[in-house]
User: What shape does this take?
Amino acid sequence: MRLLAVSAALAASAALSGCGEMSNEQQAALVQNAVANAEAIAENVTAEAEKAEKAAQAPSRDGWVGKWVGVEGLVLTIEKDPAGPGRYRLTNTYSLDPGASGTFAGAATEQGIAFTRPDGAKVLRASDGASTGLKYLEGKKDCLTVGVGEGYCRD
Assistant: This one.
């Protein structure tokens, strides 16, 4: 990538110097600028490729998409985020306290879906009703647990 940019800069410099309009210092500055731009572009392309590769390798939690019900009206809805694979939007009412609801960005991890709410960083994990620690959910088989005392199941 760098060689291509340098070659282009040199070609442009040669063309302009043939007109007699640029000094050697100006030509050198043009080449240095072209090289710096090419390096910045290469770094951006590499960073974007690495992000895309990581997202493609993220474990899929697409099977968790949908509505999950907790106790006393608590609910969690998971949607795929158009930002890319391994990305989710969680709409969550997680407490009866005023303001304890919202929509949060989530990312698939080996453990589950990681996200951050006002009460801190959390990870949704696959579980059963007994693992939620909630008597009302005991006996349920298809659940997601945030922590003991907070879980959501499908009927």
Notes: Residues 62-153 form one domain. The CA atoms of residues 105 and 121 lie 11 Å apart.
